[in-house]
Inverse folding.
């Protein structure tokens, strides 16, 4: 083998590769002569070998893509280099300079630099016929001496590593490496310690941190390490969720992956603090029931008189001032808790006693106890409710007296009868409608879009008010109320109906596909039957074409096997001479088989020394020989390579004398091979494992192989093969669609507990994952078509609307109010003179009133008003 890159051997090898791959004449030769300028035994610091300087990474890429091992022999090395140039030329639309640059520096042009620029100029100058600057004998001798004396990259790196370079040399060396001008030996790297990755602490540490179980010093040390990037915490258990969170637009909100620094939780009150808080609560309640009442009445009457005298009585502004003055009067004579615990207890007491405001006169004093217990700011809010009730009749009489019925006053201060009706559930509170505006199509609110999507399904879904508006407060009410055994029954029934309707919609989509198969195995059988039938039809077409040619006069045309033909990059020879030159090895049994077949068909005879001697065979005999070689080739790489060489040589022998019938038969055979043999997915679906009777892909896994286990290109090939395989193939594709939808439905309902009736329910997260898996891969539109894909996306969006709640609607599970309910019995008993059981009975009466109000709101939630009304 020639070692010097200047040897004519390499020029000839490069020229033959250029012809074979149709590269610009001289391009690969100039890469060797003027670009790489490396001898055959030269290995670069990056491990590049051969005169074409192919790195191990590039070798592996070419081997994987083309099956050509650049390190196997010289011809393969030339072929690998040629294939790389061919790719670059296609990628750059024939730009030779760009192809040269990519061959040297890769496709990322930011790494090219000045060395690559000089490389391109040298090769391009030679390619364009310009004279490459030549050196004199003296200059070449000096350059050779310098080259021998110049340290290699490995030696420079060793000096760098040992600290023998000065500061400037070290800086220049590191700069050249980072810019790509110098490539370090394999495994070497520059100094400079990479920033250490933060250590993830155990889950228990995160939970202890968030729940406040660390002492002050431990907490401070941990937060300091987190800020310094030394450690990080997983999300605390209480902040984790098994379901994805969606914003009001229906988009998934990414869950955090790390626990952030949080404020320490408030410490639990001590026993003494609790006792002091209860005492302050009782004092607030007592003063609110006595002094607060007197202060409210005084403030109301005093401000009402002033408004009448000023002539403003009856206006919304006057009503607001009267309400504010009443609240201030009540607050002035009501004790306000000073401790945090007392404020929390009085706030909770006010919440559970608010319904008592609606009862007059028997329970109004008890209501004042709860309302007065809400602190300064909450007291003002509670007293405003009572002020409206107390002032409303006065406003009504005053309005009649002065004959000024103002609609604003009626809206601001409703009559006491109306408010009581709302409290007991006999009247639904009026909701202010949205302000009218001229809205274009692009400004349609999300509630209208959700409503439209839900009604555009084969089986329309009835949304609740919270689902339609995604209003956090309304959703919170619906979620919490549905937990009530009695009041939540209608909401639970609606939820169960929604789960069933969504599954009915998926079933409807399955029916729309026209699928007949009921499971994966039946689908696999349908696909296999359709493909095998079409495969046999194509094979018959090839057999008919060859039979027609074999019966024609063309078949008897003699073929001259004494004429040499091309054999890759070797010297020309006949196919018989090639067989004689190849040893019989276990790794290439096709050579032994081809020799025996040639002898049995009369194409050649054995000589005295066992060599083959060519006869004068006909085209028919040569075609039969070719078919036998093709049939006897196994899937081993050496065998495939030798079979390809033999078939190519046979074609070259036959080509000068072949007629149209054999050409047509050859074209049919090539078309069949391209369709059935050269596509991996088609081979997987139609053939068995080598040497066995087992299918490459089991029947029940065929849908999985087509839809999930292959690329989008594989899916396109499989779909095209089925749709061109007659009516059975089209039906098989419809079965694939149906089973894919059934798979989505099964994924959405798997692992979800059934409802009270035993019906399966849907997981919005699982449904989203199943649909997004296909959509993100670009397969959803190709499987179901654009319209079908949009329907599935709509199903996905509606499921998010129906079966998820945003974090802003999170439920507070605090039990403070329930705990204080028992304490209130004692407080009411002491302050009112009633025994505790009687006080509890009164509280139960207010619960009945509240329940009626909840029922009315549930009814409204189940029949939301249209956003267009």
């Amino acid at each position: 083998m020639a070692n010097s890159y200047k040897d004519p051997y390499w020029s000839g090898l490069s020229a033959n590769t250029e012809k074979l791959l149709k590269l610009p004449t001289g391009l690969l030769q100039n890469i060797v002569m003027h670009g790489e300028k490396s001898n055959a035994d030269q290995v670069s610091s990056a491990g590049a070998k051969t005169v074409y300087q192919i790195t191990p990474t590039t070798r592996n890429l070419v081997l994987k893509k083309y099956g050509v091992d650049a390190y196997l022999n010289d011809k393969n090395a030339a072929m690998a280099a040629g294939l790389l140039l061919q790719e670059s030329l296609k990628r750059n639309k024939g730009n030779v300079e760009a192809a040269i640059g990519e061959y040297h520096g890769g496709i990322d042009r930011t790494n090219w630099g000045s060395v690559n620029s000089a490389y391109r100029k040298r090769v391009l100058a030679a390619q364009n016929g310009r004279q490459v600057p030549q050196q004199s004998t003296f200059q070449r001798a000096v350059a050779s001496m310098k080259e021998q004396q110049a340290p290699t990259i490995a030696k420079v790196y060793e000096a760098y590593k040992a600290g023998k370079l000065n500061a400037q040399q070290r800086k220049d060396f590191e700069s050249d490496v980072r810019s790509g001008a110098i490539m370090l030996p394999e495994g070497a790297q520059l100094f400079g310690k990479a920033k250490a990755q933060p250590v993830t602490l155990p889950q228990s540490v995160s939970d202890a941190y968030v729940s406040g179980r660390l002492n002050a010093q431990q907490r401070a040390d941990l937060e300091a390490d987190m800020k310094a990037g030394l450690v990080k915490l997983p999300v605390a258990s209480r902040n984790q969720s098994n379901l994805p969170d969606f914003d009001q637009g229906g988009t998934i909100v990414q869950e955090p992956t790390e626990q952030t620094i949080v404020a320490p939780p408030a410490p639990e009150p001590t026993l003494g603090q609790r006792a002091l808080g209860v005492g302050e609560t009782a004092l607030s309640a007592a003063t609110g029931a006595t002094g607060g009442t007197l202060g409210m009445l005084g403030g109301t009457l005093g401000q009402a008189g002033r408004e009448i005298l000023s002539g403003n009585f009856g206006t919304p502004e006057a009503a607001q001032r009267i309400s504010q003055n009443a609240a201030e009067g009540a607050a002035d004579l009501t004790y306000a808790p000073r401790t945090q615990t007392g404020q929390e207890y009085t706030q909770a007491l006010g919440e559970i006693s608010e319904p008592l405001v609606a009862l007059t006169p028997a329970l109004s004093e008890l209501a004042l106890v709860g309302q007065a217990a809400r602190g300064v700011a909450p007291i003002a809010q509670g007293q405003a409710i009572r002020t409206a009730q107390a002032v409303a009749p006065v406003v009504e009489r005053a309005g009649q007296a002065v004959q000024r019925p103002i609609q604003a006053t009626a809206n601001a201060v409703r009559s006491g009868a109306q408010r009581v009706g709302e409290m007991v559930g006999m009247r639904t509170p009026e909701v202010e409608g949205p302000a009218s505006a001229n809205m274009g199509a692009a400004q349609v609110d999300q509630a209208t879009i959700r409503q439209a999507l839900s009604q555009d399904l084969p089986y329309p879904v009835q949304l609740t008010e919270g689902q339609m508006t995604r209003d956090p407060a309304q959703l919170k009410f619906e979620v919490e109320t549905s937990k009530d055994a009695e009041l939540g029954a209608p909401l639970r029934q609606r939820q169960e109906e929604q789960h069933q309707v969504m599954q009915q919609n998926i079933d409807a989509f399955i029916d729309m596909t026209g699928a007949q198969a009921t499971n994966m195995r039946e689908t696999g059988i349908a696909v296999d039957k359709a493909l095998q039938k079409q495969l046999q039809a194509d094979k018959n077409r090839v057999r008919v074409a060859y039979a027609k040619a074999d019966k024609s006069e063309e078949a008897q045309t003699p073929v001259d096997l004494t004429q040499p033909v091309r054999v890759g990059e070797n010297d020309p020879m006949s196919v018989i001479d090639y067989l004689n030159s190849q040893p019989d090895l276990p790794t290439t049994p096709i050579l032994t088989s081809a020799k025996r077949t040639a002898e049995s068909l009369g194409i050649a005879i054995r000589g005295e020394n066992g060599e083959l001697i060519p006869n004068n065979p006909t085209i028919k005999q040569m075609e039969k020989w070719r078919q036998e070689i093709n049939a006897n080739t196994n899937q081993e790489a050496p065998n495939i390579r030798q079979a390809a060489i033999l078939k190519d040589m046979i074609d070259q022998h036959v080509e000068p004398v072949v007629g149209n019938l054999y050409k047509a038969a050859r074209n049919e055979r090539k078309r069949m091979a391209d369709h059935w043999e050269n596509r991996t997915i088609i081979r997987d679906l139609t053939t068995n494992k080598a040497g066995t009777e087992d299918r490459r892909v089991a029947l029940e896994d065929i849908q999985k192989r087509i839809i999930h286990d292959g690329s989008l290109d594989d899916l396109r090939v499989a779909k095209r093969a089925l749709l061109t395989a007659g009516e059975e193939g089209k039906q098989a594709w419809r079965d694939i669609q149906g089973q894919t939808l059934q798979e989505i439905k099964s994924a959405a309902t798997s692992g979800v507990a059934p409802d009270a009736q035993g019906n399966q329910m849907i997981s919005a997260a699982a449904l989203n994952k199943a649909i997004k898996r296909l959509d993100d891969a670009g397969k959803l539109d190709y499987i179901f078509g654009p319209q079908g894909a949009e329907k599935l996306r709509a199903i996905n969006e509606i499921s998010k609307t129906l079966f998820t709640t945003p974090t802003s609607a999170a439920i507070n599970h605090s039990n403070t109010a329930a705990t204080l309910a028992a304490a209130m019995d004692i407080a009411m008993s002491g302050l009112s003179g009633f025994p505790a059981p009687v006080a509890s009975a009164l509280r139960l009466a207010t619960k009945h009133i509240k329940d009626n109000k909840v029922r009315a709101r549930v009814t409204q939630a189940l029949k939301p008003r249209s956003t267009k009304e």
About this structure: Residues 199-240 form one domain. The beta strands are 199-200, 231-232, 245-246, 252-253, 565-567, 570-573, 604-606, 612-614. Residues 131-143, 145-151, 354-443, 826-834 have pLDDT under 50 and may be disordered.
